[in-house]
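Consider the following assembly input.
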Amino acid sequence: MLQITDLRKTFGAAKRALDGVSFAVRQGEMFGFVGANGAGKTTTMRIVMGVLQTDEGEVRWKGSPLDFTERRRFGYMPEERGLYQKMKVAEQIGYFGRLHGLSPVGARKAADELIERLGLTERVGDAVEALSLGNQQRVQLAVALVHDPDVLVLDEPFSGLDPLAVDALAEVLQERARGGVPVIFSSHQLELVERLCDSVGIISAGQMVASGTVDELRSSVGRRLRVVVAEAKSGWADGLPGDLRVENGREVLIATDGDDQHILHAAVQAGRVEHFGVEQPTLTEIFRGAVA
Amino acid sequence: MNGMLLVAGREIRTQVRTKGFFVGLAVTVVLIVGITLAPKLFGGPDSYTIGLVNSQELAVHGGGDTEIEWRTFSDEATARRAVLDGDVDAAMIGGTAGIRVLSDGEIDSELGLMLQAAHREAQIQAAGVRTTPLSMESIGADTRYEETRSQMAFMLVLILFMLVVGTPMMVAMGVVEEKGSRIVEILFTSVRPWQLLGGKVLGLGVVGLINLVVVLAAGLGAAFASGLAVDFPPGMAGIVAGIVVWFVLGYAFFAAVAAALASLVSRQEEVGNVLTPMTMTMFASYGVAFFAAKEPTSLVATIASYVPPFSSMVMPVRATAAATPAWEILLSGALMVVAVAAMVLFAGRVYERAVLRTGARVRLREVVGSR
Ligand SMILES: Nc1ncnc2c1ncn2[C@@H]1O[C@H](COP(=O)(O)OP(=O)(O)O)[C@@H](O)[C@H]1O
Ligand SMILES: [Mg+2]
């Protein structure tokens, strides 16, 4: 388990970037890290990767403080991508494999496998600067994955990808998570996070405002009742809890509290009940509620 | 350590594979060989061909390694043609009134003197007088090698200047490449800053050393091939080894400075500007070294040969240009080693703190004082 406990970081004299960030990611868990721009995601990830020093708090891996040797077994994709522009694809991936401790043969093998897996086979001999942005992004991913990392930390890995590339990347990450690797990634695409992640952490202004499994977050927000009554007299919902909205020209009652049986009874009285169901709040709604 | 060697390996491979590396090396070799041979090509010849008609070969004693080739002609007319065609430098025609020397235009003055002396000697000996040559002896400093030494020193200034300036420049470019492209952020998760910087300096140093060794070998090879090597002063092996050691020290110092300064900026365009203090120091060293090649025993050269980092260029030049006591070289070397160690520590500190701070140019003050 990767445990991040009470990180605090201040830049310069006044700029407080992190103000007590804590969360944990278990083996094989996909953790979505969401928050507005400037909330502190990148700073947190940089501290995890040892690129920044934290002022307070600590990062633990498998129960003990994370050190350099263990961190070499992590895979990292920084927010600002970086590759040697003039180095060839296969050579570059292999070089990073070597830096992460692979043998020459092991590094070449791992690079070849990834090149095949990520569809870069025709590009092995090209310099990175000659590749399209999408392909450069794939090389960047390969660099993060080449040493078969114990933990993956990816800062906005989906940004700038087309929908097909998003699916391909998601599949690769899920595959790694199934192999027991904790995967942390930050993203603004909340539907994507909702679809992929086992758990989610929401950060706002340097503080964690919510974290847990998606189900836990939902139940913390509370369930929501959605009722549609056809041919109801106007005003049928007066006196009932919740809001009456108009969606596609029909009145819809959304209620987050109150006795559902009582509401059902009132609806049946008012007319023909077309829809009556408990609805899950989307991550977007949870996010809005949490950072508000 | 392993990480550092991997980084160094990448630097070497990247450099050695470029066309620029070979072109640069070829140009330097041609330049050095050219300069080595220039005195021979443009100076007076030291081998002459003399035609003989009815006369004897003379025992000519020229200065240094002068050689004379004799060619006998059957009559004067053929010999005259050979002189005019340039096949021989002069022709000696024997006759009742003595020997006439024919040349195309006025005779090469050195050749004329040599022939005159040899002829006089031969006549005196023929008359039965025993002669003994004058024996010359210097009781002052040994100045036999002065000229060769100063020629070698000038060449050394040129070589050291190209390599000691050029190689740290590559270090600076590499540092900015990694900083500007933000690749350091990934690298630092698998290698420590000192490994990355150390590997880069080591790798490019090896590239510089390859250059130096090839250039020295070319120069020495040309000197041996052309016969110039007979003028080499004693202790030549020590002089050459000293050059290599001084290059390593000078390079280490300036590479550290280059890395520290370059880590302050994020774009290649800013490199030249931020390196100004270093390039100024280098040009100053170059100026003094140039002077030291000419006046190796002057006060300026002596003082500068002790002060790091000037000493890294001035001392080898001084030691080449004039015999210099070993203790002076060792003392100056020790001072330089201390300076290199201090600069490496300082540069490592600056680099580590500045290289992750992209964007606007980082001020040296900001990274030196803090923590
Ligand atoms: N190197 C830095 N110097 C000064 N302030 C910084 C630095 N890095 C980040 N910050 C500030 O810290 C806050 C958090 O930034 P960041 O972690 O990049 O947020 P996110 O990745 O969530 O968008 C922001 O207000 C940002 O301006
Ligand atoms: Mg960010």
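Chain A has a mean pLDDT of 89. Ask yourself how this observation constrains the way the partners meet.
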